[in-house]
Every structure is written in C-alpha cells, then in structure tokens.
What does this fold into?
Amino acid sequence: MSKIFNSLLKDRPTQLGLFLLLILLIMASFSGFISNENIQNLDYRLLPSGGINHLLGTDHFGRDILLRIIVATGISLKVGLLASSISLLLGILLGLIAGYFGKWVDTIIMRFTDIMMAFPVLLFLIAISATFEPSINTAMIAIGAVSWPPMARLMRSQVLMLKSREFISSAEALGFSHPRILFFHIIPNCLAPIIVTFTLGISGAIMAEASLSFLGLGVQPPTPSLGSMINEGKDFLRIAPGISVYPGVAIAITVLAFNLVGEGLRDALDVKLEK
Amino acid sequence: MIPLIIRRILHGIPVILGVMTISFLLMNVAPGDPVRAMVGDYYDDATIESLREELGLNKSLGVQYLNFISKAFRGDLGKSFMTQRLVVEDLKQKAPFTLQLALGAMLIAVPFGILLGVFAAINRGKLIDRILIVVSLVGISAPVFWIALLLILIVGINLQWLPPTGFGGIKFLILPAIALGTRSMAMLARTSRAYMLDVLKEDYIRTALAKGLSQRIILFKHALRNVLIPLITIVAADFGSYLSGAVLTESIFGWPGVGRFALNAILKRDFPAIQGTVLFMALIFIVINIIVDICYAWADPRVREKLINE
It folds into this structure.
C-alpha cells in the first residue's frame, strides 16, 4: 500500500493533478459561504477583468464572474461525483452478474451493453434531459444512466478472469452464497481497475454536464454552471470574451485534475484498461 | 474472412433493434402530446383527432411499435414535424455536411495526432516531449464548445483570418473541423506516443538496430507500421465521438448537418426526426465498428484468429 502511495506521489503529473484537486476542493468548500446576493447582484454593469472588487470582471447582468465560477465548479464536482457513482453502481452490478452467472444472463446483459454503446452519448443525454424536466438531478441521473457500459465490460472481464482462480473455486466448494462470493471475494480483487475507471469517469461526467448546460439542458438558471456561463457569454464574445473564456478554463482545469489523478492511479496500481 | 463478416453483420442486427426499441420507448414516455407539438395550439380537437388517426398514434403502443419497426426497415422514418418532409429526405440532405465536417476533423486529427505522438516518443523525456504531453492533456480536458468559441474569438474575430461562423466554401469548414478534431488529435497523440514507446522496446527493433539499419528505416518501416494497426480502432471509435461532437460544433458554427438537425428536433419535440437521427447515428456507429473489425482482422492475423474462435 505504501509502495503505491509512494509511486503515486512521486509522479510529477499526478502531483499536479492532486494539487489542482486540492484547490478545487478548497474552492468548493468556500462556495458555501458565497451568498446568493453575491452572485445574483443584478446592476447590469459589465466590468472588465482585473478590477479589485471583481477580479475576473462581471457579466452582462453585473454578476461577479469569479464568484460564479467558484459556485459552478462546486456544482460540477458534485454532479461529476454523483453521476460517476451511479454509473459505478450500475456497471459493477451488471458486469458482476453477467460475468459470474454467464450463459443467457451474460448474453442478455452484454447485448444490452452493446446497444447502449451504439447510442450517440450526447444525443441520448440531450433527449433524456429534454424529455424529462431539465435540472441538475435529471442531468446527473441521465449521465450516470448512460455511462455505465465501460464499467460493466470491465467488471465482466475481471470476473471471468477471477472465476477460474483457486480461491473462488474453494469459496464455492465451501458452499458460500453467491452474494458473499461476489461482494467479499470478487469485488475486493478488482478494486484497482474500479477506482481508476471511477476517477476517469468523473472527468467524463463533468464534461457531459458542461455540454448539457451549455445547450441549456443541464443546470437551470439562476444557479450558475460552467457550461451555461460559456453559453451566456457567447453573445458578448466581441466585447467581453472573459464571460465565456474563464468558465472554460475552469472546466479544463477540473477535467484535467481528474484525468491526471486517474492516470496516476492507473500507473501506480498497474491497471491495464481495455480500449 | 467471409463467415467473420457475416457474423459481424448478424451481431449488429439485434443491436439496431435494441436502439430502435429504446428510442421508441423514450419517445413514448415523454410527457406532452406529439400531435399538439406538431400543429401548435391553433387547432380544434377534431382536427387533432383526425391527425392522430392519420399518423397511427391512436393505436395501441404495441401496434405503433411494430409499425415503426416495419416501416423503418423499409426505409420509412416518417415525416418531420418541423420541416414537414420525410425524415429520410432530411437526413439525406444533411448527412453529407456532417460527413464533410467529420472528414475534415479526421484530416486534422489523424496525421497531426500521430505525427506529434511519434515525435514525442522519439524525443522521450526531453523538453519537447513534456510540452507535448501537457498540451495534449489540455486538449483532452477542454470542452469542444469552448475550443470552438476560442477559435471563433481568436481566428475569426481578432485575426479575421477565417469567417467566424456560417456556411459556404472550404473557408467555413476549417474552424469547425479544427474544433471537432482537437480532442481526438490530442487523444491520438497520446496513444500513438504510448504505442510507439512500447514498440521501440520490442526485440525486433533491437535486432534491427543491431543489424545497423538506419534510424529512419527502423522508425518508418519497422516501428510505425506496428503502431498504426492498433490505432485503427482508436480512429474509428473517434468517428463515433465526432457524431456526438457534431451536435455541439454544428450548433455553434451554424453548420447545416445532422447534429444541428438532431438538436433542433429534440428541442422542438419532433419525435420522428429524433428517432430518425438517433437511428441513423447508431447505424453509422455499428457499420463503422464492423468495418473496423474487418480491417483489423485483415491487417493482423492474430486478431483474425481470435475473432473467428470467439
């Protein structure tokens, strides 16, 4: 364990990723102190960045861009974490069942996985969000509900690999129940790829939420979201590009942080993921 | 080879059926009346009832489903509420534009991505390698719509080199193609760098070095070839992501392709158009995957063996 931590902390890119993650978490914890008044201050004065009171300037409603980014980043993190958790649960469950029970159960689940993979993801997300009321929760659940197939495939291949191992056969010979074997013998042995897929999944989910919000189908105003901030700034690109540009930087940094940490974990845990 | 191709195609049929079923169900749990969405609020109940009958929407869900499937297999995806034209006709008209955009993106992503990746690999550990690693990571982490806006801002508005948005000649294609291709260029650069580093460690490269072959021959003849084959899958998988990316890119740049059509259809609850585009995109995805598998099997005997025995 300490060896893993050492190699994780020695890796330069991972250090950067962890550092960025730390900053993001600090920012997110501050977002609780930012009152609605601060970010909903509507005096319609568009200010350039660099001012003392408004470091990144204000948008066309006179709202402070930096404060809105801080709040929106917190929301992004929350959506990313929860959506990735939903897909983690779905993927693990379906993959476990498919791999462990095999036969027709496997065929059905894997066919379903193929079908889900064939859908154009963003289009599917847009359709779900437009069908049901667009909101943070809809976006979160929709993202979780469409992004589980890679996790399911991963779990299935892990289970197939483990199933032939002696400790599983002996657990079966001892008459352990299926759930006991699955949850206490198989899952603990594939934690490494699960952690890596989960971490990389967060960055995917954050990106998906940003895309949805950019199209107006994710987080709804007046709640700030990085994607919708970029969209709102679109019309002011000529006079105040900062309104769009800064939130984009925030998305890139957030996604980058999770990518770096995810890849660092992958190398440290020596996980080989299927492409 | 032939049985493999047939098996791949047979495998695709249930997937397509599944996609159709899910998109049909999704449209039917959607709140709101598609007929009302189609005609607006200005019609009386009798007109709406007769329209419902005309469209077969008064029948039971099962009958509607079978109708939808059997019509779709005959190439009839119904009529779009927005355009009042057959969805198939709309798709036929818009698909070439999306194809143009996707090919443009590919033309940027594939050569540059592989070149940068290989270049980074042979300069492993040097400053340029590190810079390329960071740049490609940023390329992967930045959202496509943001890159699109930056391109519009910098190249279109500030430098005025290219028209920021709109549609016309090749001039208008360049920015959307770059926006759409950036992410996959960054991915390809990273993957080809990793593959190249793996290949350079192989025995046959050491043998070639020991034989005294020139660096260039080893690089291009021995190493690059072995890097290119696994890259086929990545390039093809990216093509699928172009379809999703096209939704955003086309909307931003005002490009008249399938992506923008799909987005408008969803926002206007144009059910036949939504089902049609989803089906169309899924079909392309499946066909590409079949082609990739075949190319892969053709290029690599080991894969052929594995796929046949599967």
The two ends of chain B are 14 Å apart (CA to CA). Chain B touches chain A through 51 residues (CB under 8 Å).
